[in-house]
Amino acid sequence: MFIMSIRWPDKACKRCGTKDHWNIRRCINLGGQKTHLFVCAHCGERTKDFIDKAAAAEALAAGIEILEIPPAYQAKRPKCVVCGAEGAENHHWAPSALFGLEAERWPQSYLCQPCHRRWHAIVTPNISAQPGL
Prior knowledge:
This protein is α+β, with helices and mostly antiparallel strands and 133 residues long. It folds into two domains: 1-73, no CATH class; 76-133. The protein is built from three helices and six strands. The strands form two sheets. The chain has a four-stranded mixed sheet. A two-stranded antiparallel ribbon has the order 5-6. The relative contact order is 0.15.
């Protein structure tokens, strides 16, 4: 089944060369975020093409099966420096929206999604570069 709002990869699989035969899979990344990505239906190779939650929900509603797959990297999940929760994402204390490339030279810490959202809601409510934060 083809859903128009989903931008299916328009390329051949890098591993096996199969084209136009993709599955959608769900994966919880090291930051604890649920992501949806395309994998080759023939060999299982992961792409770097992701779809948003709304498109994934539309695919599920249309009867497309979305299976869970493990993270590509089985590293230990980082902990939030504020609350200690596992599954934290890297946070730039100097937002790139304000500091540009210099933001990479400023301190960074791991924050879980709730603490990360809270920080952005309080400190940078009008400049968040990440939707939903």
